[in-house]
Amino acid sequence: MESNNLTSVTEFILLGLSTRPELQMWFFVLFFMIYLMILLGNLLIVLLIVMNTFLHTPMYFFLSNLSIIEVYYTSCVFPQMLRHFFVERKSISYSCCVTQVYSFQSFGVAECYILSVMAYDRYVAIRDPLRYTVIMNRAVCVRLVTACWIGGFLASVVVTVPTFQLSFCRDNVIDHFLCEMPVLFHLSCTDTSQAELVSQILSVFTLLSPVIFITFSYIHIINIVLKIRSAQGRRKAFSTCSSHLLVVIPFFVTVMSHYMRPKSQYSPEKDKIITVFYVAFTPTMNPLIYSLRNKEMKIALLKLLGKMRDI
User: Fold this and answer.
1) Fewer CB in a 10 Å sphere around the end CB: N or C, the chain?
2) Is the model's pLDDT at 193 over the cut of 90?
3) What domains does the chain contain, in order, with CATH numbers?
């Protein structure tokens, strides 16, 4: 890491969401409640799916994996962020920064892929409902989910390695609340063009390609649904997709606006707001969207509450 007059850094200082001391306690309470909702909501979804055999279908298998990813994804950020609300020196070691970037990228990419698989699942269910369980059998579902997880971890290696081959000199202050690649590109004191190129190419495969795949899936879904003669049949078909779309659209819009914009458009305050949206808001809304808009999940939840009352 040391070369010529460049001085390597062993830690980074995170400025956090705000430098105003009077806001730290309020931020802690807010984000602690958000993190608690994310953990409880997503773990509850996994519990309900595991406990109820009528939820042992491809759609809920993918949903349970999405919830697990959300728990890991947010846990890469929230514990450190919550701790930093109470300390004056908001430092993170170089190795921890590497770990955070790698983990955050891994679970983020895995989420992009699992959302694509869920779109394909809805397409198969609507296109060929009679053969749906045959096409989307357990072996196929397991292979698809395994590919999503492995793809996330491999893709993260590809982008993390060139990022941390950059030199970070005397300036180790990050105007953010976590280590992220776009912020590190701006902080580096050496040429970042190669690392940025790798990041942009990877974004095509991890962000743009899933968006294109999901878009074409829903174009085909809409085309199929419009051919259904009964209005009730069309409403039922659309209702199976609406929850997925409510999750997909805000997630991809915010992530793409952050990771696919050029370095010249870097704005610390704007970046923090966007990051809060896809790190906190989207994972909080997912359990609410999939539970409140889903009849089967409501039935499973009522059964669980009934068992708890009987204890």
Assistant:
1) C
2) no
3) 11-310 (1.20.1070.10)
